[in-house]
Amino acid sequence: MNYNFEEVLNSMSLALDLAEMSTFDDNQIFDSETNIHYTTESFLDHSKKTTYIALELCKELDLNKYLVEDIYLASLIHDIGAIEALEKSHATHEFILGHCITGANLLQNKIFDNISEIIRSHHENWDGSGPLNLKGNSIPIGSQIIRLADILAIKFATNSKKLLNRDDIISWVKSKNNVVFSSTITQAFMNIASTDSFWLNLSNIAKIPSLIKTISPRIVRTLTLDEIEIIAYIFSQIVDKKSPFTAKHSREIADLSYIVSKYIGFNENKCQKMKLAGLFHDIGKLAIPSKILNKNGSLSNSEFNTVKSHAYYTNLILSPIKGFDDVRVWASNHHEKLNGTGYPNKLTDKDLSLESRILAVCDIYQALTEDRPYRNGLSQEKTFDILKEMASDNLICIKAVKLLHEALNR
Q1: N or C: which end of the chain has fewer CB within 10 A?
Q2: How far apart are CA 237 and CA 337, in angstroms?
Q3: What CA–CA distance (Å, rounded) separates 406 from 410?
Q4: Rounded Cα gap, residues 212 and 218, in angstroms
Q5: What is the CB-side half-sphere exposure of residue 194 using CA atoms within 13 A?
Q6: How far apart are alpha carbons 105 and 96 in whole angstroms?
Q7: Whole-model pTM?
Q8: For domain 3-213, is the CATH number 1.20.1250.20?
Q9: 221 versus 57: which is more confidently predicted?
Q10: Which ranges in the chain are annotated with CATH 1.10.3210.10?
Q11: CA pair distance 408, 256, nearest whole angstrom
Q12: What pLDDT is attached to residue 30?
C-alpha cells in the first residue's frame, strides 16, 4: 500500500508547529529585524497560516502548477531545520542561518529535491542582506513567497487586534518593498490584502482547515513505506536531539522492533511498519518543552503530566495519514500497561495487541540499557531481570519480553 504524500507532510507540519509552540514560556523574545515579539501564540497553526498566505500569493502571481505544488509542500515544513535550535531564538543570525541550512540538508534526498532549495533560501532579503547574501532574482521565487508568508503569519498571530490592525501590517510590508521583498511580491500582497476575505480566512484557518483545501493544489503523488522510512528517520533525528541523552533512542527502538518482528516471522511489510512505529513512537515529544524533558531533578506532578502527554501527541500527529492506523496505534501505545495503569488511555491487556506490547518492551529495554547523565546503561542480564519483574506485576507482556530476549540471543 502507498500513502498520500500530502497527508504525510500535513502530519509532519503539525509536529513542527507543536514543536515551535513548546519552545516559548511566559517570556517573549523580541526580533529587531521584524519588530516582532515571539510568543507561544506566534506559532499556533503557524505552518497552516504560512501555507495559506503562500498559496494566495501563488494564485495572484499565476504561477505554473508544478511550482505551486513545490511551494505548497515547502510551506508546510519550511521550519523543519529550526527545531533543534529554537531555544537560541528566532532573532539571532546564528539561528536564522543555521535553520535554513539544516532544513535544506535534512531534505536533500529524492523525495524533497525541489523543496530543499526553496527552504534553504526562505530567509533571504531582496536587497541581499539575508543570511546567505543572495540578492534579487538569485533568490528562488518560492523562497521569496515563503519569506513574506512566514513573517506575515507571525505578525498576524502576535497582533492582538487582528483584523482591526491589518492596516499596520500592510504599512509594514510596504516599508520593506525592495528591501526584504521585491516590488512584484509586495504588489501581489497588496492585491490580496485589499480583500476582507483574505484576512477573515487567515483568522479562521485553525478552526476551518478546509479553507486551505479550497486553494491548495491536488497532490497525486504517493509514498512507499521505504520513502516514509526516510521521512521517519529525519524526524526521529529531530526528536532524539531534543534530549541530549537520547541521541539514538528512536532508531535503536526501531531496530529492536524490527529484529523481534523478523524473529517472530512477520512478513517484511509488517516488519517495516514495526520499524516505523519505533521511529515515530516519541514524535509527540516535540510538543513537550525541552526545559521539562531535560530537567535536572525530579518533576512536579504537573510537569510529569506534561511529559506523559507525548504519547497523546504521537497519536494526534500521525492521525492525518490514512491507512497508517496500525503504525499510529502501535507507536502511541508504548506507555500503556496491561493492568490499566499506563497512559494516555489507560488501556488494559484486552486492548493491547502483540505489536503494541513488543514496542512497549523494546522502549523500556532501550531506556534501561542506554547511558543517561545520572547513570550508566544497565547490562542485558540486569535489564531482563527488571523486565521480568515488571511482567510479573502485570505491567508488560511476558511473551513480548521472552521474544525480545530470544531475538537478541538467538
Answers
A1: C
A2: 27
A3: 5
A4: 11
A5: 6
A6: 14
A7: 0.88
A8: no
A9: 57
A10: 3-213, 225-409
A11: 8
A12: 46
Whether 248 and 376 have beta carbons less than 8 Å apart is answered as no
In CATH terms, 225-409 corresponds, of 3.40.50.720, 3.20.20.450, 1.10.3210.10, 2.60.40.3880, to 1.10.3210.10
Angle, vertex CA 345, rays to CA 239 and CA 84, nearest 5: 10
**Nine cell digits for residue 246:** 537520547
Rg of the Cα atoms in the chain = 23
Dist. CA 156–CA 151, nearest whole Å:
9
SS (HEC) of the chain: CCEEHHHHHHHHHHHHHHHHHCCCCCCCEEECCCCEEECHHHHCCHHHHHHHHHHHHHHHHCCCHHHHHHHHHHHHCCCCCCHHHHHHCCCCHHHHHHHHHHHHHHCCCCCCHHHHHHHHCCCCCCCCCCCCCCCHHHCCHHHHHHHHHHHHHHHHHCCCCHHHHHHHHHHHHHHCECCCECHHHHHHHHHHHCCHHHHHHHHHCCCCCHHHHCCCCCCCCEECHHHHHHHHHHHHHHHHHHCCCCCCHHHHHHHHHHHHHHHHCCCHHHHHHHHHHHHHCCHHHHHCCHHHHCCCCCCCHHHHHHHHCHHHHHHHHHCCCCCCHHHHHHHHCCCCCCECCCCCCCCEHHHCCHHHHHHHHHHHHHHHHCCECCECCCCHHHHHHHHHHHHHCCCCCHHHHHHHHHHHHC
C-alpha span between 16 and 397 (Å, rounded):
33
Per-residue pLDDT, 154: 83
Per-residue pLDDT band at 186 (split at 50, 70, 90): very high
pLDDT in tens, 119-143: 999 999 999 999 999 999 999 999 9
Residue type, 372: R
User: Residue 178 CB: number of other CB atoms within 10 A?
Assistant: 12
**With contact defined as beta carbons under 8 Å apart, do 159 and 169 qualify?**
yes
Nearest to 273 by CA among 283, 286, 260, 284: 260
> What is the pLDDT, as a whole number, of residue 16?
87
Q: Is the pLDDT of residue 302 over 60?
A: yes
Residue 372 C-alpha cell reads as: 543517561
- pLDDT average, residue stretch 23-50: 59
- The single-letter code of the amino acid at 76 is L
